[in-house]
Each structure stands twice: as C-alpha cells, then as structure tokens.
Design brief:
Blueprint lengths: L12 E3 L2 E3 L6 E6 L4 E7 L3 H14 L5 H4 L2 H17 L1 H12 L3 H19 L9 E2 L5 E9 L2 E5 L5 H15 L2 E5 L6 H13 L6 E3 L4 H9 L6 E5 L2 H14 L3 E5 L5 E4 L5 H13 L11 E5 L3 H13 L19 H16 L3 E4 L14 E4 L6 H4 L6 E7 L2 H8 L7 E5 L3 H10 L4 E4 L18 E2 L6 H4 L2 E9 L1
Parallel strand pairs: 7-8, 7-10, 8-9, 10-11, 12-13, 12-17, 13-16, 15-16, 17-18
Antiparallel strand pairs: 1-2, 3-4, 5-6, 6-20, 11-19, 14-15
C-alpha cells in the first residue's frame, strides 16, 4: 500500500557488499518534490569512492574469482533469485520511488513489475550466449567465443530509476560482467535498496557496486576511469557527448548511450479523432512528460486539426492535482527545482514566440514542483518548443497536409529516438515507417515497451541498443579462435 512515511534504511555507498560512508564524509540531500522537503541525506560519492568501487569490481572480475568461475546456469539462477527478492519487496521499492521521484505510487509499482520482468528475461539468457563455428580456409577449426566485456560503469537518470537500473544490471550480470552504478543525485534511494537486495541474493563481493553522487564528479570519474571497460549512460545528449569524450581520452572504453528525443506522433484524418487525442495525450503526458520518448511534436492533418486541438485541450484541463500518494492524482510534481524551472522557461518561450496556449501554461501553487499540463496550438517547426527537448508536460500541436511533407518535417531534428503514426491506411503507415529516422516506430499505438523489445535511437539520440537479445551484445566481446588440425 502507498505509504508516504516509508522507512529509509539505506543512504550510504555500497562497495564490495558493504554499505560505507564516502571517503570525504560528504553527504547531499535528496528532496521530496511534492513538498520541497529533505527526505534524508545520502553519502556523496566522488573520485576516491569510484576508485574503490572499480577496484572491487575489477577484483570480482579476475579469472579465478567466484563470479568468473561460476557456471552460467548458476549465474542465471542467481539473477532470477534477485528478481524474486525485488518482487517480494515491491511495496517498499514503490514507496521509495514515489517519495524520491514524485511519481504516483501506482506508477512506481508498475515500474517495479517491469524491472522484475526485465531481470527475469535476462536471467534466462545467462546460459544461452553462444559463439559460432566458421568454415575457414585451410586446415583450421575456427570458432568464436563471446565473453564478458569486463567492468561496466552504469550512469542512470531520475525519470525511471528502478527500471533503468535493472535495464543496465540485467544484461551486464547475464553476460558475466561486474558493475559500478551511479544513480541520479535526485533519486538515489531505490538503487541503494536494490544494492541491499543484491547482497541478500548472494552475489559475490564486488559484482554490484552503487555509488550515489553528482555527474561532474562521480559520473566523470566513472566515464574517465582507466579500469572501466565500458560505460553505459541514459540521459541528455549534451551529457552523453561529454561521456564519450571522457571515454575516448581515458582508455577508449566501449560506450552505449540512450539519449534525448523530440519524437513525432503523426495523426492522419482517417483516424478516429477521440481515440487519437487520447493516444496523443498519453504519449506526451506520461510521467509528466519526463520521458525520453514523449511524443511532444504532435503533427495533425489539417482537416481534423481544430477538432483535435479542442479535445487535446480538454483532456489536459480535466486533470486533477495531487501528491504522489493520493490514488486520484493525475498531475504530480516534476522531479526537482531545476527541472521545474526548465519546463516553465520553455512554456514562456512558447508564449513569446507566438504559439497559442490552449491549456495549462503555469505552475500549480508553491508547495511543490507542480506544473499544469500545457497544450500549445499554432506551433511552427522553427519554434524553440518544437525543436528542443522540454522533458515536461508540454504538448506542441503542429498542422500538416501530406505524407511526404510530414515525413520531411518529422525528420528535421537532431534526434531520432522514437516516432508514431495513427492511420487506417497501412500503405501510409508503412511508407512512414520506412522513411522516418527513429529507433522505435509505433503504428496506431505509442510507447510499446517490454523486456523483449529492443530499444535505442538514431542520430543524436544514442549509440547501441538496450533490451531484447540485442541488448546483450553491448556487454560482450567476440574472440575468434583458430586451431590447426
């Protein structure tokens, strides 16, 4: 059950299966975004703490270590046990997530269930990672061996802390890597709870290490560390570029990035307007717009544009404000003061550049970081709100005429994470799918997401893929072996 008074058990750094204070002794406050009050102070990891965590992960990855010599099937069973403990503790985890992040308890509970399914999916893959035999020329027997890449540095964001932590941990553990994970400074509490559950599971010392801290210090220490073999990051494109730079300058470590988006949802006039407005609304305002795939560019064909705008405005205006533990909550706080101010500044930009405000457009009181769901019409492609990722509850509705035109306009972005189309004409849908530059395309739906479905972006929305079988490849090296016969 929802419990705003959930007990905080873990607020230290987790290294080598032990909770410890930071080397510096410093802490930082994690804030409840619904009331701006400090929940608890958390140990602040820095370069020295990252060094200790990497040393522990490196030791756990040595050739004769318990982790490296464990049967793959046993590793899979251990990962599955971890998933069972997460499910057993789902109420505590969901309450912590809601307290720290601001999202409703019901949403946090769904996030925990998704995390469990991802971990169980990868548990099943642990003993199914195969090489190939190759019919090479000459008197040679040649085969490939796929082996773990080594120590993985994982840096995760604040919008889906539990889910993305497990999206990083699942394939890393299944392939036999060891991990140093840095949660976002806004939302460290569930990652630390996961650390405690990993110890209870029985993972060997050093396999999983959690270092809360800030990006420019702890995050940079991970991405630039010479003993980290790979860094995986989910967050903004701007920070992703910095991580690539640090990875290249240090030891040319492997990098996978899931970055920003400005995703288009294209709605044709042959689609039911009521259903289209509901799909579009959900695709933008999910998680208060704090979603990298949010369809914030809503392209609507001109014949149904005015009707669609009215319905979109009403859906946004009818939402109810509440805190994250109120079962009737439809508007909940943004994660932090920084994000709150960022979103409000974009709303002001839309007003100044001439977009028509149809709903919302302002903050909700002063108690927490609340912003009313906002809808703009008469948006043009060159407006700031149509080009930059807002990461908040703001919908831009843009008019279009033809398929070819809207494909070109939808592709006119530095991003390429996701895209959607609503139409009853499958020829239209398939032409759009073929020509849109996006890693995920949803037809007559949006945000179809599960453990089995590969996810990632084109262009400046990222490098590499997560989830599905393809997600394992990011954590593996291929070794080719030839034996003279």
């Amino acid at each position: 059950m929802a419990n705003p008074n959930v007990k905080i058990q873990y607020n230290q750094i987790f290294i080598n299966n032990s909770f410890v204070n930071s080397v510096s002794g410093k802490t930082f406050a994690t804030i409840n975004p619904a009331n701006k009050k400090t929940i608890i102070n958390v140990a602040e990891g820095d370069k020295e703490d990252v060094d200790l965590a990497v040393n522990a992960a490196r030791a756990a990855f040595q050739p004769n270590s318990e982790w490296r010599t464990m049967d793959a099937s046993a590793r899979g069973k251990l990962i599955y046990k971890f998933s069972e403990l997460i499910e057993k503790n789902k109420i505590n985890l969901a309450n912590l997530e809601s307290l720290d992040n601001g999202k409703p308890y019901s949403s946090s509970l769904l996030d925990v269930q998704l995390a469990v399914s991802v971990l169980q999916y990868y548990a099943g893959f642990a003993d199914k990672i195969h090489g190939k035999t190759i019919p090479s020329d000459g008197p040679y027997f040649t085969f490939t061996k796929r082996q773990p890449i080594g120590v993985v540095g994982s840096i995760i964001p604040w919008n889906y802390p539990i889910v993305i932590a497990i999206v990083k941990l699942g394939p890393a553990l299944a392939t036999g890597c060891t991990v140093v994970l840095k949660p976002a400074e806004q939302t460290p509490l569930t990652a630390l709870y996961l650390a405690a559950l990993s110890k209870e599971t029985g993972f060997p010392d050093g396999v999983i290490n959690i270092v809360p801290g800030y990006g420019p210090t702890a995050g940079k220490a991970i991405s630039s560390h010479p003993d980290v073999n790979k860094v995986t990051f989910t967050g903004s494109t701007e920070v992703g570029k910095l991580i690539m730079e640090e990875a290249a300058k240090s030891n040319l470590k492997h990098v996978s990035l899931e970055l920003g988006g400005k995703s288009p949802l294209v709605i044709f006039d042959d689609y039911d307007v009521d259903e289209a407005a509901k799909i579009a609304h959900d695709s933008v305002f999910v998680n208060m717009g704090q979603n990298c795939c949010a369809a914030s560019r809503t392209f609507v064909q001109e014949n149904i544009y005015d009707a669609f705008v009215k319905k979109a405005a009403k859906l946004a205006s009818d939402k109810k404000v509440g805190d994250q533990f109120d079962a009737n909550t439809q508007i909940w706080p943004l994660v932090s003061e920084e994000q709150y101010n960022r979103v409000l500044s974009y709303i002001e930009s839309g007003k100044k550049e001439g977009a028509k405000l149809e709903a919302g457009g302002s903050k909700v009181g002063d108690t927490g970081y609340y912003v009313y769901p906002t809808v703009f019409s008469n948006v043009t492609d060159n407006m700031k709100i149509a080009r930059e990722e807002i990461f908040g509850p703001v919908q831009q509705i843009i008019k279009f005429k033809t398929l070819d035109e809207v494909i070109n306009r939808a592709n006119d972005t530095k991003y390429g994470l996701a895209a959607g189309i609503l139409t009853k004409n499958m020829d239209t849908a398939m032409k759009y799918m073929d020509n849109i530059n996006a890693g995920s395309v949803w037809i007559n739906s949006y945000l179809v997401y599960s453990a089995q479905i590969t996810f990632g972006g084109f262009n400046q929305s990222g490098l590499g893929r997560e989830l599905g079988e393809d997600g394992l490849k990011e954590y593996l090296e291929i070794k080719t072996v030839s034996i003279r016969q």
